[in-house]
Amino acid sequence: MQPSITALPIKPSRLQGLSERLIDSHYVNNYGGAARRLGAIEAALAEFEPATGAGFRLAGMLRERLAAQNSMLLHEHYFAALGGNGASPEGPLAAAIARDFGSFAAWRGQFVALARALAGGSGWALLLHDSRAGRLVNQWAPDHLHALAGARPILALDMYEHAYHLDFGADANGYIEAALGNLDWPRLERLYAAALLGQAPPTAPDQPPDDLLTAEALRASPSAFVLLDVRLPGDRAKALLGIVGARWCPPEALGEWATAQAPARPVAVYCVYGFQVSIDAAARLRRHGVKVHRLAGGLAAWRALGGELAEVAADVRVRTEVRPVE
Ligand SMILES: [Fe+2]
Hints:
The protein is globular. The strands form 3 sheets. It has a 5-stranded parallel beta sheet with strand order 4-9-8-5-7. A 3-stranded antiparallel beta sheet has the order 2-1-3. Helix 1 packs antiparallel against helix 2 and helix 1 (20-46) packs across helix 12 (298-305). By secondary structure, it is an alpha/beta fold. 45% of the residues lie in helices and 13% in strands. The protein has 2 domains: 12-197, minor pseudopilin epsh fold (3-Layer(bab) Sandwich); 212-319, Oxidized Rhodanese, domain 1. Bound molecules: fe (ii) ion. Residues 26, 30, 75, 158, 160, 162-163 line the site of fe (ii) ion.
């Protein structure tokens, strides 16, 4: 079974010192790669016959599944931790850090030293809540297979070279400082609160589920939707490839498009990452009586899933109504 792709919870262009190119590549190729690998492993496992299959084959598949599962989970924690201003925490998490490390500065010093110790190779620097001991710990993980049993990740810093090489080359220290400067501590506070209560990690507050369509659902039933690429002209100009089967309509022409097309099937709109552009586009189409869904995670989630791409042309009926792409 193909695992569900979690939408990138941050706008890469808003991060400081980490480029959109770096984050996009990391999300699509490495996070998406783990998801695709996990789907392939699950398919192979489903065909394994315990009565006749070799034990070492099963062990190999289960080992690789663990690696892919943890890679997905840790990458989700990594991306979700970014998008803040890097200021230190102020709530119960701050108090717990002071209790368990002596001070925030002491925690940060140990965490940065841990991350630096992983530089040049691979692994994760982790801040975990150890539920058995009831305390926070920094954990070294040289790959996806190391995890403290019973602990919940609060912060995961990716120290694989793919996390920084595009922007920083071999300067891992520069990357570590840039990443810590983007930490969203209020979100980490919510994660810590959920961990104390044994609750599932809270979802991002800007992802209401009502009209969202997952990339997996779209790929499973593409004919159920009229697929509309609503990326801004500048974003489309940077990447002409969109989701196969989609037509492009810039946001300012959506009213004309809805009037001209009068779609009989629900419309699924997508933009680059699934944030404000598609939210606004969906609202605009609804004002014209169109039943509309938004693709969760936008084109990036589709690419991470490994969905088919094709050059997306403007709809003929609106081509003459919109400004040419610059
Ligand atoms: Fe990574």
